[in-house]
Amino acid sequence: MKIKVYSTPVCQFCNLVKQFLNEHQLEYEEINVAADENKAQEMVAKSGQMGVPVSIIEKDDGGEEIIVGFNQNKLKEVLNIK
Fold it and tell me: pLDDT tens digits, the chain, 82 residues: what are they?
């Protein structure tokens, strides 16, 4: 499983997503869309969203789960956290 978090440095909800992942000792790739316009466009193309955070979880079976905002319940469900 691979986790990407599209975020900006000043985003409160982005920090909550990263804090949640850190608390559960999950590795993730943080992508600062404020500093990289190409990555911002990639985020919009994948999610249809212009706001952050957008978390993309690439599953081992090749499927992707896209979570917009800080949705703790959805993160727990997708990441199989009890």
Answer: 999 999 999 999 999 999 999 999 999 999 999 999 999 999 999 999 999 999 999 988 989 999 999 999 999 999 999 8
6 touches 43 (CB < 8 A)? yes
| In this structure, CATH architecture of domain 2-79 | 3-Layer(aba) Sandwich (3.40)
CA distance 73 to 43: 22
* Residues whose CB is less than 8 angstroms from the CB of residue 71 and which lie 6 or more positions away in sequence, other chains included: none
Q: Which residues neighbour 24 within 8 Å (Cβ) at sequence distance 6 or greater? A: 79, 81
